[in-house]
Amino acid sequence: MGYKAKFRVWRGESGEGRLEDFTVEVNEGEVVLDIIHRLQATQAPDLAVRWNCKAGKCGSCSMEINGKPRLGCMTRMSTFTEDETITVTPLRTFPVIKDLVCDVSFNYEKAREIPSFTPPTDVKPGEYRMQQVDVQRSQEFRKCIECFLCQNVCHVIRDHEENKPAFAGPRFFIRIAELDMHPYDVRDRRPQAAQEEHGLGYCNITKCCTEVCPEHIKITDNAIIPMKERAVDRKYDPLVWLGSKIFKR
Length: 249
Ligand code: SF4
Ligand code: F3S
Ligand code: FES
Known about the structure:
Blueprint: E1 3-13, E2 16-26, H1 32-42, E3 62-65, E4 68-71, E5 85-89, E6 96-98, E7 101-102, H2 105-112, H3 132-142, H4 149-153, H5 155-158, H6 170-180, H7 191-197, H8 208-212, H9 219-236, H10 238-248
Parallel strand pairs: 1-5
Antiparallel strand pairs: 1-2, 3-4, 3-5, 6-7
Helix pairs in contact: 3-6, 6-9, 7-9, 9-10
Bound molecules: iron/sulfur cluster, FE3-S4 cluster and FE2/S2 (inorganic) cluster.
Residues 144-150, 170-171, 174, 212-215, 217, 219 line the site of iron/sulfur cluster (SF4).
């Protein structure tokens, strides 16, 4: 059965704005993004929201719902009570362009700072042979849909704009970990580099990133903590790095 829900949605541009109240129809099985679309169709035609797949796979519809970073298309209205006011705001860590749409280019800049996969020159494509365990390790990290919810929630940059130049953030720690753990990546990505150039040392393992990841990637346990441990190992013994590459093949 349908009902009328109370929505408060952030409206504005370039950081200037306010919360606007709406009463809007909700039908069985709908998600928050459906309600935002109904608002566009009936009451607020210029309401800006980014979305694409409506299936939890493109990572576009990231927003904060009652203060929690979520995908609008994967947040069912049945998670809320019918008398609850649902507040929808843009991601807090990135500058707002308009309404619920943020400028997430910080993340693309960080992506460009990470050197790409560097295979050995003497092994041709098609000749790579990997242990299943190594394949699985990469696959977990490659499930990332680049929703940037983890980047948004991490306290290192959420309230500290000044940390942004030095901190790549959890999404990029999994990228560095994936490459560093790859047996055919020959670039020395010594986690000291992650520690010093990408700001791994700022992370104090609060695990908020892991909690919000819609792909359930164990960002902290499977990428950040192993990288921190390896950073310590290698700092004292560079042969450990060499050994780790040789024995992983
Ligand atoms: Fe989103 Fe998870 Fe990728 Fe972070 S690691 S960008 S939370 S899918
Ligand atoms: Fe931030 Fe995740 Fe570390 S939320 S502090 S990167 S564990
Ligand atoms: Fe693609 Fe929500 S619209 S993840």
